[in-house]
Write a structure and sequence with these properties.
Layout (H helix, E strand, L loop, with lengths): L2 H14 L3 E3 L11 E11 L6 E13 L3 H17 L2 E2 L2 E15 L6 E14 L2
Parallel strand pairs: 1-2
Antiparallel strand pairs: 2-3, 3-6, 4-5, 5-6
Length: 126
């Protein structure tokens, strides 16, 4: 398993504890708020999957009246991610975290879109 997939699967499992979670943007029938575990970027420092960095983006969507619930979801995902030390056959630790809130007018209902960017350092367990 690649490092990015191992971290994706680990974070997806964590996110499920905090709300409806998808690995794709769901259709309009999805209930708000929801979590979409999205893009991942891997940078191998050794060209052999032994050591590197994975950046994983997690998106939270909700209505503007759900700001408090979204904020709590973001905080809980952050707090859980900080504790992650293993992702399948990799040792990992969160090395950076950024979040931003964007107004989303792509639907008839004005939404809030939280974008969480989590960066993990990894080493492959021998």
């Amino acid at each position: 398993m690649t490092p990015s997939n191992a971290i994706f699967r680990t974070l997806y499992g964590l996110a499920m504890a905090h709300g409806d979670t998808y690995d794709y943007v769901p259709d309009a029938s999805a209930k708000y708020p929801f979590i979409y575990v999205g893009e991942a970027f891997n940078t191998d420092t050794s060209n052999s999957e032994l050591i590197g960095t994975v950046s994983q983006t997690i998106h939270l969507y909700g209505t503007r009246t759900q700001r408090n619930a979204l904020d709590k979801m973001a905080m809980r995902i952050h707090d859980d991610a900080v504790k992650v030390r293993e992702a399948f056959n990799y040792k990992v630790r969160m090395s950076a975290y950024n979040d931003r809130v964007v107004n989303d007018n792509s639907t008839a209902t004005p939404l809030l879109h939280y974008v969480l960017e989590l960066e993990f350092q990894y080493t492959k367990r021998g």
